[in-house]
From TrEMBL:
Entry annotated with the keyword DNA repair: no
Organism: Sutcliffiella rhizosphaerae
Protein's UniProt keywords contain Coiled coil: yes
Single GO molecular function: tRNA (adenine(22)-N1)-methyltransferase activity
Gene Ontology biological process: methylation
Pfam families: TrmK
The protein, known as: tRNA (Adenine(22)-N(1))-methyltransferase
Its EC number(s): 2.1.1.217
Gene: trmK
Keyword terms: Coiled coil, Methyltransferase, Transferase
Length: 239
């Protein structure tokens, strides 16, 4: 992977960046995404943000190597601390857990002033991001699911707004599995949730034979609810 050829996952993220954006890529690692987006004529300029020294130095070297210092700025800082309000129009956060992405967005909410598009790629826990978007008046407008190197990834795209249309049919289930993904219902989506269902059911079986405890009862209740929601979505989509 380099500034000319991204991973399948990051290419899918880049495909959602609006033309002429001013991009901030949080947790940019080698800054491949902003460099690629500029070289492909997608963005006008970009910021690569990194909190860890090693990746920060890697991003600096990458930007220098591609001679893009005049359009890509590498900044060291925690989450959205690397940007100012009204500085960027598109924000990408890719390759982190949903809980961490949610925390970054919540902690830096005031920095999102002027941002028109959020493109978020959680490795796990996409439901937490959908909930945050809904609670903070960001409209989910697109989703992508893909598989690369044996792992399945989801990409969520949101715009400013209060529209809850994607969730009107089955809010609880669609927050979990994704309203657009559920309606598209492609092979990777079916694979992901078939595996999740089987995994959850095995855990429930184990908990049923385990010692009774409040924690086990709570976990069983949560898993059984998730199983019900996913089976309901798959049934709806099959009907």
């Amino acid at each position: 992977m380099n500034e000319l050829k991204l991973s399948k996952r990051l290419e899918a993220v880049a495909a959602h960046i609006p033309k002429e954006s001013i991009l901030a890529d949080i947790g940019s690692d080698h800054a491949y995404l902003p460099c690629y987006a500029y070289l492909q004529g997608i963005i006008k300029s970009g910021i690569a943000g990194e909190v860890v020294e090693g990746p920060y130095q890697s991003a600096l070297q990458q930007v220098r190597k591609t001679e893009l210092e005049h359009v890509i700025e590498v900044r060291k800082g925690d989450g959205l601390d690397v940007i100012f309000p009204n500085e960027v129009t598109c924000l990408t956060i890719a390759g982190m857990g949903g809980t961490l992405i949610q925390s970054i967005l919540e902690k830096g909410k005031e920095k999102l002033e002027g941002v028109q598009t959020l493109i978020l790629q959680p490795n796990i826990g996409a439901k937490k991001i959908r909930l945050w978007l809904l609670q903070n008046k960001w409209e989910l407008v697109a989703e992508t699911i893909l598989q690369e190197d044996g792992r399945i990834y989801e990409i969520l795209v949101a715009k400013r707004g209060e529209e809850t249309q994607p969730y009107k049919d089955n809010k609880s289930a669609y927050l979990l599995v994704g309203p657009f993904l559920a309606k598209e219902r492609n092979e990777i989506f079916l694979k992901k949730w078939s595996h999740e269902l089987a995994h959850w059911k095995r855990i429930v079986e184990q908990l049923e034979t385990a010692a009774k405890s409040e924690a086990n009862e709570k976990k069983m209740k949560e898993l059984n609810e998730n199983i019900r929601l996913v089976e309901e979505v798959l049934k709806i989509e099959n009907s």
